[in-house]
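To: structure subgroup
Subject: Chain for Friday's discussion

All,

I'm putting the inputs and outputs inline so they're searchable in the archive.
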Amino acid sequence: MMNLPNGEMRRMNVKQSKKWKTDDLRELGIFIAFIIIVCVLMIFSPPGFRSGRNMLNILKQTSINGILATGMMYVIITGGIDLSVGSIAALSGVMAAHFAHPGEYPLIIPILLPVFIGTLVGLFNGIGVTYGSIPPFIVTLGSMTIFRGAALIASKGQPVFNVSKPFEAISGAFVFDTIPVLVIYYIVITLIFAFVLTRTVFGRHVYMVGGNETAARVSGIDTYSVKIVVYMISGFLAGIAGLLLTSRTISANPTAAQGYEMDAITAVIIGGVSMSGGSGKWYGTVIGALLISIIANSLDILNVSSHYQPVIKGMIIILAVLMDMKTKNRGK
């Protein structure tokens, strides 16, 4: 570990303290905005929006995007981006469905295979970004195209049907006959990766690499390994999302999960994670994912055309990035 002069250390500590205060204010603003939007929708939406059944439906809609957003959060905190998660989910789902036909293979095969595929693609992305020195946008854009094509090849361009009942139950089951198991998966995954991000050395390294990669490298952190692992985490969670999506829909479509990468990015940005890296909280990403599902659900209940949803998401992304830039400029 490199020894810095005391004066430099004090300046770094003051700067970090200001950064934490700025981040805390931004997170508080996000939470307040979330509460206001929910209250407005509760008041002006039809009674169906406020029903317990619809609340559970919103949580189900949040789960898969929330899982993808969790992996995306790690990548964006390091200053990267992963555009391939939707394609990974589609390819993973197709491969899972191929091995989930009744009586052909043990259930463990279609469960582990998509997770392995997702992790492997994440490794590919991480190596391209680090050792290939290719911008993350370009690497993952190429991966998005490659693995979407691989999903089409593996399925011959057709949906894959006829999955077994045990495979269907992976996402279709309920806890206490009320709570969708899909929501439980999301909660467990969120808590595990929140713990890793906030309570482990690796989590601190993720923030340090995103905040100042050069300083992190000089201080002895293996920045290449950190970045490779975060892309593997993103791919791993995209593989899980593909598995759960296939189980939920009882089929795998090679064109499934199109646009999911944008939903994940939107959730992360709304949640206050800076696109320039180095800052953001896990619970902000949860709020962002919930907010996207709530807006989409309320528009459906109000019979607003789904064509407006991409417009709204795009506007939210621009507004969130603008606010992040303004906040950083004030901090400087």
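Points worth raising on Friday:
The radius of gyration is 20 Å.
The longest strand covers residues 174-175.

D.
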